[in-house]
Amino acid sequence: MSDRLPLASPAYVKNRARALIQHGQSKVLVLRARPRWTGSERDIAIEGQRVLVRPVASHLAALDALAERGPDDYLVLLTDLAREDLGDAVLVRTERGYADHVDEWSAVPGLFAAHTVDVELRRLNWVPAALLQHQPPNGWPAAPSGTVTADHALGNLLGALLGAPLPFQPDLVSILDLLDDATVRAAWQSVPAEMRTALTAWFSRERNGSLAMALDAAAQGPVSVLALGLALDVLWPEGPLDETSDQVLARGRIETHISGRPVDAHAARTYASTARSLVVRMESLGDPAVPDVMQQAEALLADLGWQQGAQWSTVLPAGLTARLRALADALQFTSSADLLDRMANVEGALTELLQHDLARPHDKRIEAARMAVRLARWICTHEAGTTAVPESLGASLADYLDDGAWVDRAVALVWDGTTDPVVAASYRMVLDAVAALRRAQDNRAAQLLAEATHRDEAPTGAVLIEHVLEHVVTPIAKSHRPLVILLDGMSAPVATEIAEAVAADTWVEAVPEGRGARLPVLAALPTLTKHSRTAFFTGELGDGAQAAERAAMTSRFGARLFHKDALRAPGGEALNAAVIAAINDPKIAVVGAVLNTIDDALDKHDPGGTRWGLDNIQHLRHLLDAAALAGRAVVLTSDHGHVVERGSEARPTPGADARWRSSGTGPVTDGEVLVRGRRVAGGEAVLAWREDLRYTSLRSGYHGGASLAEITVPFLLLLRGHKVPPGWVPAPPQAPHWWHESQRTRAVPGPRRRRRVGPDGVVDLAPEPEVPLPAREAPPGQGALEIEVTASVKRSPAEALASALVASEVFREQAERAGRHAPDATMVETVVTTLAENEGRAHRDLLASALGVTAATFTSTFAALRRVLNVEGYPVIAMDADRVTVRLDEGLLREQFELGGVRG
Predict the structure, then answer these.
(1) Which residues are paired to 236 by β-bridges?
(2) DSSP conformation letters of 332-346
């Protein structure tokens, strides 16, 4: 008979004893069960009370147990005796005067402060014992509806087993997050196999296979469940992919790391996507566990016999390396013409690289890759013949500000942008090609400089540095009281970085109205601080010191000028009180400050490897803030630029400076130019125009020579608010076209090649078919019989589409509906033409430049464009997820505006 009775589990006994202590009328409980106790101790403590648990097989044994109990003790008897065998002497002392049958299900509602158990849960016979055995110290969370459901009970049971805070509602994200902790995996592995199997089976059946897959994987061994997910991500990738034999074999081998059974592809894909998202989020937050997870994933793929599979990953480092090398392969060119033919592949490789989850915008490798492609585009502009050779010094200076400075900025990032020798080899090819083109520009500019200086001719379209304050700043001071900040040694490339930083700080740049771009300034010669900075502040050529500069500023403009020592403040203050007082004084029209951080870096630091902004130039941010509070405009300018040490040729010359020497020290040789005239200190000098030439010891950077980077002085006018000085306009984005957009100045001959990153590098795919442009018919009334033929202007397909758009009836209705918020038709034509010419995608700065509006103004302009073009809300024009790329859906445009038959 004893074998027919259930065994009272320690968890059940403890639960009944707790109820006895809390609510019982007696201190003795008799349970009809096998007279066997499986607990580790015969006396247990519950809520501070001693509970004796005694299995009894006879009436005498029951009486002995009762006699053993102390007055404050509780007693639980486990017996298979019938009521008549126990006798009244025992039962009279027990709870309710009879023996209770062991029914673990009856205990379940009370565990959850409920009144009933859901039918679905009752089908799982193993559940009551599990819930009793693993009941948390504070009990199970109450069932919200009063009914214990399977979701509620098993979700919280799993949470308790994994050590999660209760209540717990498991989903794949939370399970993967928990199980990736080795301690949690160990806890799960310590759960009895039968219970693990039963729980996993229920979640697989009632929830989804991916969650059960995670539980199975965690039970197998020490491998990170997130690492397993990253391996699954390449074994069962998103989208169509040609399978390899190694990949198929690896799919079979990974079964032993999960459940030993065939893997469901849909569950694997769900698991992989969730794991990848978790790892990407962890990586973005700087979680120190991420490198180990990724190493495990790559090692797992190697163990599966498919080590190269890691290169397909969009999150593993091996995948990023593969994409960088694919870009490097695309950049292997033999000539600029060859590069132009390769640019479709180069752009595609960059796109694939940027789609990798580890391609963070500020990662130095990613910045270098972007810059390398920008330089490749720039090289192609020369091959395509779209750049004109400047015919004057002023044109050379302007061209450098508008174009060459951005090239030099990109070079600085590419120069030390990778530690991968394969990628570095391709970058060197790009840098060598850029250096050759830039050297030709510097050579040309040096000759124009020598001619203009000898003729004492001011460059057209540029300002001599000694005239800047009088001719440029003084007119501005009549309405805007500028703070003039001279950043000693700031080159035009550095100015492009700083301009972006101040624009992000809500300053608006203004440029000369006639030019629409930044004002070029020509430094004094040689391009040294003692000549050029003195000329800036005094208005005269010659050597000078700080005292002379301050005196000249006071006598000429009634201005205050602060050098390094005067900017220093006592402890706890950002700026010297005298500086703040001058900036705040409305009677002082012009305040000046000299910052030496950039020039100092040429001696001791790496100016080429430094990313210049508001926070690594001492005092700059605080001066800008003070000017803003005082309602002043800000002029950011320099006295000269600089070149960076990148493997220069040394020509030691007695008495020479870093980049110039006296004309009496020898004849002019390669890389040098002789300049003579009023603007040259001493009347004449030999200046190095080649950036890689020096006369003195090695330093981080140099100035004094005749390269465009040294003689071109940037001038930035910054404002807060919309009012601009007369003769100035808000600046459109200043970056050149190739900075943001791929180069499309010449069609790539033949079908466009398509490639993708594969385990063996770049894999060629089937070429895209060529789409011929529609034939253009001659205008009616012209031909061979006509005596007088007027040449017609042939419009491109993009121009024809834009023109037809603004002439359409739907556009007219949309513009009327938008009312005064409707954009000008010319503006719409410009935007649509630009987007259509760029395959329906363009950087917002490119469009702002095309429209002649500022980057800040473009936001409202874009809103106006959307009101007119997005008929009934359909996204004809939209901003991409990156928030900088504008997209045009040309098919939708044609459909909404009934332009199906329009051709160029």
Answers:
(1) none
(2) --SSHHHHHHHHHHH
Cα of 743 vs its chain's centroid, Å = 24
Instruction: Render the burial of 250-288: b for 16+ CB within 10 Å, e for the rest.
Output: bbeebeebbbeeebbeebbbbbbbbbbebbeebbeeeee
Mark whether 442 and 473 lie in a shared domain.
no
Only one residue has tokens 């694919």, namely 326
- Which amino acid type is present at position 733? P
Same domain, yes or no, for 577 and 623?
yes
Q: Determine, yes or no, domain membership for 400.
A: yes
Task: Tell me whether residue 334 is in a domain.
Answer: yes
Distances, alpha carbon 641 to alpha carbons 435, 512, 538, 568, 644, in Å: 18, 21, 19, 25, 10
Q: Check if the beta carbon of residue 836 is closer than 8 Å to that of residue 744.
A: no
d(CA 737, CA 741): 6
Helices marked H in 634-733: 708-711
Residues in a beta bridge with 43: 52
Give the pair of three-digit tokens for residue 807: 């002439």
Q: Which domain holds residue 441?
A: 320-454
Q: Are residues 552 and 641 in the same domain?
A: yes
Measure Cα distances from 487 to 381, 388, 639, 710 in Å: 32, 31, 8, 14
Cα–Cα distance between 663 and 677 in angstroms, integer? 13
For 756, phi and psi rounded to 5 degrees?
-145, 165
CA distances (Å), origin 12, targets 76, 99, 176, 323, 600: 11, 15, 32, 60, 78
Same domain membership, residue 646 and residue 576: yes
Number of domains in the chain: 4
- The answer to whether 393 touches 445, Cβ cutoff 8 Å, is yes
Let me know whether 404 and 485 are in one domain: no
Among 620, 757, 804, CA closest to 330? 757
The DSSP call for residue 4 is G
Q: Which residues contact 209 (CB under 8 A, 6 or more apart)?
A: 264, 266, 267, 270
My answer on whether 402 and 484 are in the same domain is: no
Predicted local confidence at residue 479, as pLDDT:
93
Catalogue the E-assigned strands of 216-325.
none
For residue 884, the tally of other CB atoms under 10 A from its CB is: 14
CA distance 606 to 618: 16
- Angstrom distance (rounded) from CA 580 to CA 570: 13
The answer to whether 266 and 212 are in contact (CB under 8 A) is no
pLDDT for position 754: 35
Strands (E), 210-327: none
Q: Choose one of 83, 102, 121: the last residue of a domain.
A: 102
Burial of 510 (0-12, 13-18, 19+ CB in 10 A): buried
Residues of the chain with pLDDT under 50: 1, 743-792, 904
Sign of CA dihedral 892, 893, 894, 897: positive
Specify if 773 maps to a domain.
Answer: no
Query: What is the pLDDT at residue 18?
Result: 87
Burial of 584 (0-12, 13-18, 19+ CB in 10 A): middle
Q: Are 717 and 510 in contact (CB under 8 A)?
A: yes
Instruction: Report yes or no on 148 lying in a domain.
Output: no
Domain end (from 454, 471, 506): 454
Bridge partners, 717 (sequence order): 510, 635
Closest among 662, 773, 648 to 707, alpha carbons compared: 648
Q: Do 601 and 650 sit in the same domain of this protein?
A: yes
Task: Give the number of other CB atoms < 10 A from CB of residue 555.
Answer: 10
Residues 6+ apart with CB under 8 A from 694: 645, 648, 649, 650, 651, 658, 659, 688, 702
Do 497 and 551 lie in a common domain? Answer: yes
Q: Provide the pLDDT for residue 127.
A: 92
Asked whether 243 and 197 are in contact (CB, 8 A), the reply is: no
With beta carbons less than 8 A apart as the criterion, state whether 710 and 718 touch.
Answer: no
Detail the DSSP E strand segments found in 383-465: 463-464
